[in-house]
Design a protein that fits this description.
CATH architecture: 3-Layer(aba) Sandwich
Helix content: 25-40%
CATH class: Alpha Beta
CATH superfamily: Vaccinia Virus protein VP39
Oligomer: single chain
Structural class: alpha/beta
Strand content: 15-25%
């Protein structure tokens, strides 16, 4: 508990963490490039980022882009925040909020890419509306993404992956959909630069295949 409290205190002063209580938390929507990054580089958002392995990993590979990890768990965000600061990565930020409220923090067309990495699959039928690829979430993502913006999903969960494909097949605004049920044996593996989240490594070590898809929304 003491360790967690210490991390929460760090988050209150860490400049790359945006959370409730900081003035910018209420004004950042539509102003990420101007008010936080101080540049016009494209914004890439990782949803359910956990410890930020993907956010930080991609920021290393693509210094010409800005990366924002989103999660509600402050102690987890702290890990990525400190790593980014220790490495001097100025193109990394973390937003602490519920993803259900993501539309309060990004303006229409403000984001060039969205990554959803190993979200809770919510396998029970009664939890369908809480799955982060439910139509109500997809509608929010569509609004956030710029024209030709890309949505990515990585998961070990076959049930979530199949559910997501079913949802996408029912929509008329999905373009350029590609997917694989075994990322590491697919031609898309090199696009991930060997970056693995903590949970991805756990599932991989257990022999689970990693599922991946990406698509664009029609405007």
């Amino acid at each position: 508990m003491r360790k967690k409290l210490s991390r929460f205190q760090d988050n209150e002063v860490n400049p790359n963490v945006i959370q409730e209580g900081k003035p910018v938390f209420e004004t950042i929507k539509g102003n990420w490039q101007k008010d936080h990054f101080n540049n016009s580089k494209p914004l890439v958002v990782e949803l359910a980022c956990g410890r930020g392995e993907y956010t930080v990993g991609l920021a290393r590979v693509y210094p010409h882009k800005n990366f924002i990890g989103v999660d509600i768990k402050g102690a987890r965000i702290w890990v990525g925040s400190k790593q980014a600061m220790n490495e001097g990565l100025q193109n990394v930020a973390f937003l602490r909020t519920q993803i259900q409220m993501i539309d309060r923090f990004f303006a229409t067309g403000e984001v060039s890419e969205l990554w959803l990495t190993f979200p809770d699959p919510r396998p029970r039928d009664g939890d369908e509306k809480r799955r982060l690829t439910h139509p109500r979430f997809l509608d929010m993502y569509k609004d956030m993404l710029s024209k030709d913006g890309i949505f990515h999903l990585k998961t070990d969960s076959t049930s979530l992956f199949d559910y997501t494909l079913e949802v996408l097949e029912q929509r008329e605004d999905i373009l350029d959909l590609i997917y694989t049920k075994d990322l590491y044996q697919s031609p898309y593996n090199n696009d991930h630069h060997g970056i693995k989240t903590k949970y991805e490594q756990i599932f991989y070590d257990k022999g689970e295949s990693i599922k991946y898809l990406r698509f664009k929304f029609a405007t």
